[in-house]
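Folded chain entry —
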Amino acid sequence: MRQMTDKRRITVFSTDQSLAANLDIRLQSRGYHVLVHSQIATLLGFAYTDPPDLIIIDLSSYDDDIRALIHSLKSDCYFNAIPVLGLVHGSEVESFPWDEFLLDDFVFLPIRYSELFTRISLSIKRIQRVFDNNPLTRLPGNTSVQNAIEDAIGKSLAVCYIDINHFKPYNDVYGFTHGDEVLRMLARIMFNAVKESGGGFAGHVGGDDFVFVVSIDRAESVCKTIIKNFDAISVDLFDDQEKSRGYFVSINRKGQEEKFPLLSIAIAVVPTNLPKIKHCGKVAEVAAELKKMAKKSEKSSFLIERRKQ
């Protein structure tokens, strides 16, 4: 397993000084920043002042105060996401009151440190996924998108940005419920197109901004599939009159009524092996230029960056 290098913070609570000291040394050896507490009041004080990434609580001699401590953390809307890992004697697994302790995971005492390190890593990664994933589409969010783009730079891949044309005026006319369904629809279309093409990354930056990463040789075909499926489904978002005339009426940014073309998408395709693509900022900059040009069309379209300089 890869050793931690980003100084994740772990708070340890135990009244057993020997166990606490051993945990402190072993966790620090793995690159974690550790704070050890033997008093519940000090643990809560530090947790609320500077929330850790994970809490380890020694439950070898649990009581009502420890139970109340965990409940206090898990009943707080801000702190309830912090993973709490309990240390429990293996001989007590059948009799331990699991329902009374709101644990996210546990490790048996005496500690097998290889297991502890694995459970810590999994707990932190799990909560990162929960927070990163877009709650509407369930696709990976900003952090994962950024990592995917960074990993793609210098490789024969393409970062593809999708934007829905005239999405805001559509939201203004039809409401956020219908707008959310459009976003979910596009998320499914994009994800399926990437998966069926042979795999890649699909993420949701937020709002109507989506990103997928595939090999350069598959980028064009995936774009065409997404456009074809989106156009086939999105037309049914409008009534017969709007479909026949090819536009809907909404209020523009100046507060005036305006005719807007039916929903379409613009896709900017940025190959990440171009000499000028050296960092994420440049990918976003090139994509913004391409999307601006693609949005000039009233129909769904995609543009691939061909300029090497």
